[in-house]
From TrEMBL:
Similarity comment text for this entry: Belongs to the drug/metabolite transporter (DMT) superfamily. Small multidrug resistance (SMR) (TC 2.A.7.1) family.
Membrane-topology annotation of the record: Multi-pass membrane protein
UniProt entry tagged with the keyword Transmembrane helix: yes
Protein name (record): SMR family transporter
Organism: Alkalicoccobacillus gibsonii
InterPro entries: EmrE-like, Small_drug/metabolite_transptr, Small_multidrug_res
Length: 116
């Protein structure tokens, strides 16, 4: 469960840096954007030490997309047409589905995985 939380927090940082790439205008804002990029990818890398990379990346990007659309709509008053909302809901269902069918890898020793 810890690794899923790392992935979710990383996706939140992803939303931050995506918004920063679009909205940053000062050195301070660009610094925060760069920090968010670093944090998001460090958390993704940490989570993929246990979670399957393909699943973790799909969830990371999916949550980042959903979060970015939500922030754009709620904070920056961007329109959210019904068809776009339908696809965002479909994406979110896929992310939840991936979480439900994915098990965390055993974090035991290397020899337990037959890699002596």
């Amino acid at each position: 469960m810890r690794n899923w939380m790392l992935l979710i927090i990383g996706a939140m940082f992803e939303v931050g840096w995506v918004m920063g790439l679009n909205k940053a205008t000062s050195v301070f804002e660009w610094s925060l954007t760069i920090l968010a990029i670093i944090c998001s990818f460090l958390l993704l890398i940490q989570a993929t030490k246990v979670l399957p990379v393909a699943t973790a990346y799909a969830v990371f990007v999916g949550l980042g997309t959903v979060g970015s659309v939500a922030v754009d709509t709620l904070v920056f008053s961007q329109p959210l047409p019904a068809l776009k909302l339908l696809f965002i809901i479909t994406l979110l269902i896929g992310v939840v589905g991936l979480k439900m069918v994915t098990k965390e890898a055993d974090t035991g020793s290397v020899s337990e995985h037959g890699m002596d």
